[in-house]
Specification:
By secondary structure, this protein is mainly beta. It folds into 3 domains: about 15-90 and about 385-435, no CATH class; about 105-300, Methanol Dehydrogenase, Chain A (8 Propeller), CATH 2.140.10; about 440-685, 3-Layer(aba) Sandwich (Rossmann fold). The chain contains 9 helices and 42 strands. A hairpin with a 6-residue loop joins strand 19 and strand 20 (about 260-265). Helix 4 crosses helix 5.
């Protein structure tokens, strides 16, 4: 979308020298480029820095080069030696992992929890068995029944499906790092309406499969925490709350093992507290507390510093994601990152130098262009290192923090790798992509949202043999759910499968998607299926004015939330979409679980109008296109009743539709779903062979 001014260093003439003639200084291998290969002419790999800080080596297109950081003269070292390795550069240690709460055994399926966790000292096994918690001493095989009263309604050492699916709560039991106590869940599902699935559809007989699945606005499970002391054999209740109108999750230990923490949030997830649990008395104190008018991030990261007491806390309270320095005594020391742009991730923390490296979407030219920054731990002296307004990645910072290697590119500009000084100057080009050789497979565009508050961005993807003198059908491929992203700003070097079939493809980062700050993210609050699909429809309205796009042949397709968006698109915007594939999609938010749905929609009791407006069935009377409904009969995430309700409404309205159900398919459907989708689109939108001359 933006013009790229060619950047060239006048000192990039390579000198062909042999390895023996160079007398190289000792090298320090930089932090690794996240395991990525560098096939592009403008990409580099295996960046290494000399210990004296005067040279950088790198590999490009199978050759090894050295750049003198004082003269910026480049020399050819020879062919790349893939076996050569050196010491790592600045560490990317995550730093947010606390002390061990045990070794978790097995691998739980989606929405489920581990059933065994061994103590950190290896002496004990904690098992979830028959609704209860049982301890087994490994050496003697002695068993201790920690609980005995568990049953199908009230159970211990496990959690509800909705906790596993929506809060990533796969761990239901936690040892203290000293292996002396076990913290575990008590779940009360009394009053939670089960959903009754049936399995065995392809067999002679079927089986009943009930699941305690709280639907939006309905009774929730009540989760509480207990702690068992191995020495006293006593169980103490943790006073952290845990009624059916709140959630307890993300239990963990601090790095030194002295504290056990748990997150608490209210049912609508607007109020977050990080609690410190006193495992002797059961009392809790509040370490951090935050609120949002829309929804609060459920599990912000805590990156601990070396002292195990101070940590970087990820917060959205400014309206953008930033980090602040806090202490386990509850003290807020200072903001670390700040400003009107979204912080990406912490790249490193150098406590000795008092320096933090981080990425942020801070380019004024495009909100999806990622940049590299440095700032003091005290929040002072922030500077943007990658000053070119393009998308940057593959960062390699020198150990002395004076130089940064970074790759830059954009949707239709091939990658180039540059050397920046960390005061923000582009000082040399290490490997240059040829903008004249751009594949021209994609184009970024933007338009104003219908409320005139935001610039919305999209990408149009094209076939390799794209001919503007022809007309093409268009596919709006999407997911679009809160916090997601449909595309990045990286160079598009390969043809999308849909485009190989003769379609153009459009993707849109609608309001409600991520990396744009809380106002953009929260714009869809209480209005799922409204402004999010509006942005996609408006993108198509904009594009169909182009002579090579056939506005009468526009398809929309997605899965899960994308299936919901497909349904809302074809029914709510019949003037835009000719055909839709609805894959395992929600069709009314009253059908989906409490934690996910109420986070973004509140409850049906508090937001009846929003739920009504977000129901696909409301719009079937105006439907005039074609729709294919795909669903698995044993989908325990988005239940098949979503598809059945839509089909019933279409039948009542006398509308035509197609459907396919997989008897043993879960949320991932089954074999043949992709082929079914493309057979449908090729038939109703016209196969590639029928693309007409304009």
């Amino acid at each position: 979308m933006l013009n790229l001014h060619s950047l060239r260093s006048g000192r990039t003439l390579a000198k062909a020298l042999t390895l023996l003639a160079l007398g190289a200084a000792p090298l320090v291998t930089a932090q690794r480029s996240q395991g990525r290969r560098a096939p592009s002419p403008g990409s580099v790999s295996r960046v290494a820095w000399s210990e004296d800080g005067k040279q950088v080596l790198f590999t490009n297109q199978g050759m090894r080069y050295r750049l003198d950081l004082e003269t910026l003269e480049r020399e050819t070292v020879g062919t790349a030696d893939r076996s050569a390795r050196g010491a790592r550069g600045p560490s990317r240690r995550r730093g947010d992992a606390g002390a061990s709460t045990g070794k978790y055994v097995g691998r739980p399926s989606r929405g489920r929890q581990y059933t065994q966790v061994d103590s950190p000292d290896g002496a004990w096994e904690a098992h979830y068995r028959d609704w209860n918690v049982v301890l087994v001493q490994k050496e003697s095989k002695e068993e201790v029944a920690v609980t005995t009263e568990g049953d199908a309604d009230v159970h211990f050492g496990t959690a509800s499906w909705v906790y596993g699916e929506e809060l990533n709560q796969t761990r239901p039991m936690w040892w203290t790092p000293d292996s002396k106590k076990l913290v575990f869940y008590r779940f009360d599902d009394r009053g939670v309406e089960p959903f009754h699935l049936v399995t065995g559809w392809s067999k002679v007989g079927t089986e009943h499969y009930p699941e305690a699945y709280p639907k939006a606005g309905a009774k929730n499970p009540a989760a509480s925490l207990l702690v068992y002391d191995l020495a006293t054999k006593e169980t103490t209740a943790i006073d952290a709350g845990g009624g059916s109108e709140e959630y307890l999750y993300n239990v963990r230990a601090t790095p030194d093992g002295s504290m056990m923490l748990v997150n608490w949030t209210d049912r609508l997830q607007q109020h977050l507290k990080v609690l410190v649990m006193d495992l002797e008395t059961g009392a809790c104190s509040t370490l951090i507390e935050e609120r949002q008018d829309t929804w609060q991030t459920n599990a912000p990261g805590m990156r601990f510093l070396a002292d195990g007491q101070r940590f970087l806390w990820r917060t959205d309270k400014s309206g953008y994601t930033h980090y602040e320095l806090r202490d386990l005594d509850g003290k807020l020391h200072n903001p670390v990152t700040s400003g009107d742009s979204q912080t990406g991730r912490i790249e490193f923390v150098d406590e000795e130098a008092g320096l933090v490296g981080f990425t942020a979407y801070s380019s004024p030219a495009n909100p999806y262009y990622l940049q590299y920054h440095l700032v003091g731990i005290d929040g002072e002296g922030v500077r943007r290192v990658t000053t070119l307004d393009l998308h940057h990645s593959h960062f390699e910072l020198s150990p002395d923090k004076k130089w940064l290697v970074a790759q830059y590119e954009e949707i239709n500009t091939p990658p180039t790798t540059a050397l920046y000084s960390t005061d923000g100057k582009l000082v040399a080009t290490l490997a240059e992509g040829d903008s004249a050789s751009a594949a021209n497979l994609a184009e970024m565009f933007q338009f104003r949202s219908d409320d005139d508050k935001f610039d919305v961005y999209g990408v149009l993807y094209k076939p390799a043999d794209f001919d503007p003198g022809k007309t093409y059908p268009l596919i709006n491929a999407l997911y679009g759910g809160p916090g997601s992203n449909e595309f990045s700003a990286r160079y598009v070097s390969s043809v999308k499968d849909e485009c190989k079939r003769g379609y153009l493809v459009v993707k849109v980062n609608n309001r409600g998607t991520g990396n744009r700050g809380k106002a953009f993210l929260g714009a869809a609050y209480l209005r799922l299926g409204d402004i999010d699909i509006q942005d996609h429809a408006d993108a198509v309205r904009l594009l169909r004015d182009r002579p090579y796009i056939d506005g009468e042949r526009v398809g929309i397709a997605g899965h899960s939330y994308g299936g919901y968006m497909s349904a809302m698109g074809v029914f709510k915007h019949p003037d835009v979409y000719t055909a839709a594939v609805v894959g395992a999609g929600v069709t009314d938010w009253r059908n989906y679980d409490t934690i996910y749905t109420e986070r973004y929609m509140s409850t049906p009791q508090l937001n009846k109008d929003g739920y009504d407006a977000g129901s696909a069935m409301k719009y079937v009377d105006g439907f005039k296109g074609q729709v294919l409904i795909l669903h698995g009969m044993v989908d325990d995430n988005v239940h098949p009743t979503n598809a059945f309700q839509l089909i019933a409404a279409l039948d009542e309205a006398g509308k035509r539709y197609e459907s396919r159900f997989w008897p043993n398919g879960g949320h991932g459907l089954g074999r043949g779903s992709r082929e079914t989708k493309w057979e449908f689109f090729d038939r109703v939108l016209g196969p590639a062979s029928d693309v007409s001359n304009h």
